[in-house]
Write a structure and sequence with these properties.
- With 191 residues, the chain is an alpha+beta fold.
- It contains 3 helices and 11 strands; from the N terminus they run E-H-E-E-E-E-H-E-E-E-E-H-E-E.
- Strands 5, 6, 7, 8 and 9 form a 5-stranded mixed β-sheet that branches.
Length: 191
Amino acid sequence: MLDHISIRVQDLPRALAFYRAALAPLGYEVLMEFPEAVGLGEDGKPDLWLMKSDQPINPTHLALASRRERIDAFHAAALQAGASDNGGPGLRPHYHPNYYAAFVHDPEGNNLEVVCHDPPTAAKATQGRPTAKRTPRKPARKVAAAKTTTKKPTRKPAPTKSGAKGTRPAKGARPAKGAKPAKGAKAARSR
């Protein structure tokens, strides 16, 4: 994916005036400006740079993507700003059936194109129709979570019988782990 591109120009003020006017219909504006370079873009990101050069210019082809109705507006604005026509807005089926573009040469000879690859029904489907508003969903009811606690199995102390000489385990009962038998009690035999 490209992040930005630079076009070398000899007459920076003239190129800047042209690109500012020609790309305004696309939402492009000057975002950064230095003595020898200017960054244009939309949504706060300069992705097209014009760079002053004293060297002879080798014309470049630059294609920007947009919507069909903006392509028409770009072409008209570019011609009014001093571009020469290199192909008016329309389909280019030799590229593919939905290739809709317009081409101009900027004042320095660069070939500037704005293109849309969407079918015409996709473009028309959204034109003039208000965007459907979504109603906010009701928040989900909070259901109290059932308490699920897992208890470690614990040994219950062995049942005892009270006797004359103290307590002792009931017949067949095992003493609890770590429990000391009562004084005088006999240990139960395990089977």
